[in-house]
Amino acid sequence: MGAKGTIEHATLACHRCGRETRHELAYAGRLLVVTTCLTCRTSIERDVRRRYLQDLRHRMLSKPARMARRLRRHPVGFTGSLPRTAARKPWRLLDEVRLVWSAAADARRRHSDDGGRDR
Amino acid sequence: MISAVAERRTRRGSAGRSRRVPPAAGVVLASGAGTRVGAEMNKVYLPLAGRRLVSWSLDAFARVPEIGVLLLVTRPQDRELVDWVLDREVDAPVEVVYGGETRQESELRALRWLSSRIDEGSVDTVLIHDAARPLVSPALIAGVLHEARECGGAIPALPADDLVAVDESGALTGQEPASIVRAQTPQGFRAGPLLEVYERAARDDFVGTDTASVMERFSGLPVRWVRGEQQNFKITYPHDLVVAEQVLAAADYRT
Q1: Structural domain of residue B203, as residue ranges?
Q2: Which of B38, B79, B168, B184 is 20 to 30 A from residue B58's alpha carbon, by CA?
Q3: How far A117 CA sits from the closest chain B CA (Å)?
């Protein structure tokens, strides 16, 4: 999977390993999209396309208020970082969209594989 | 001596809390598992529905009017992350204390940080909460606080109705373990006895499984249970994050 979204790492318990291991978690906006155990490489993908679009709409509507809050708290830092973050935003958004659609395809594939076995 | 130490007061938080100082303290533990495992990123700073896990708990405590002091016990290596979270996601004033190697040591450091206020009576009850339980509600916090003030100690718990009793050979006895409950947090206790008990446990090298077990070992103070909440589960597996995210989305991102 080429798209990454926002990546975080943390120690969580892994069902397959049966112990706490290092995990990689990929987020798109407020949504957790993919989790991967870095020991056994077990990953869980979610199909969050519909929720992602709803969440994106919410983020766009609330963005002005969030920006105003940051401007009030840190006027210098916020203003200084604005050109860079604004320039990066379209690419980050594109990366999120690719992550969400790619994870949805993986989730569908996994679901159909499981269904095939069940039958 | 507490190694900690920073105090942050956000602008809105300070203004909103200057009217009165209620005498109860909320302690949110964010220093436990990550310290034991190593230098790995602590799960309580993972994003959950647009905020870091720990800030959901802090926000729930901040919405209980009787909580006058809010403490975050963290690891020194998480300092930058803590500053970021408190600046961006938490409006209430939060005091930051560095924890120890174990949960109990972290609790002791928090209690020592509060000791002068406990001695002078400006903190009468302490509630200790695990930051890995982000969906705790203000109602549950208030309920535990009320019961702790009434009885001396209180913990939230759920009836463990999925347990079965077995004998020494491993066979089912057919009897139901009727008095077993699954403990949650926050666990609340009168502040004076709690500090005394933790100091004594440290002298005796006693390590309990949770706050209540330390109290039971060294104090005669009654500890009652109040009904916990299903959604107040501990984030352990990656899937727990997905469930928590869905619970928050269904509740319009309020605990």
Answers
A1: 6-155+182-250
A2: B38
A3: 23
Confidence class of residue B11 from pLDDT cuts 50, 70 and 90? Answer: very low
User: For A54-113, what is each residue's pLDDT tens digit?
Assistant: 999 999 999 999 899 889 988 998 899 999 989 999 999 999 999 999 999 999 888 787
Q: Which residues of A touch B41 (CB under 8 A)?
A: 8-11
Task: Kindly list the residues from chain A whose CB atom is less than 8 angstroms away from the CB atom of residue B45.
Answer: 10
Sheet holding A31-37, edge to edge: A6-14, A19-28, A31-37, A43-45
Query: Which pLDDT score is estimated for B35?
Result: 41
Buried b or exposed e, range A56-83, using 16+ CB within 10 angstroms: beeeeeeeeeeeeebeeeeeeebeeeee
The ranges assigned to domains in chain A are 6-106
In angstroms, rounded to a whole number, what is the distance separating the alpha carbons of residues A73 and A119?
Answer: 58
> Does some domain include residue B218?
yes
CB pairs under 8 A between A and B: 60
ipTM of model: 0.87
Residue B174 lies in a domain: no
Assigned domain for B234 exists: yes
Question: And the tokens for B241?
Answer: 């994050």
Region B37-51: what's the mean pLDDT?
82
Within-domain flag for B164: no
Residues in chain A: 119
pLDDT value of position B6: 45
> How high is the mean pLDDT of chain A?
89
Given pLDDT bands bounded at 50, 70 and 90, which one contains residue B209?
Answer: confident
Q: Is A9's CB within 8 Å of B41's CB?
A: yes
CATH classification at residue B217 = 3.90.550.10
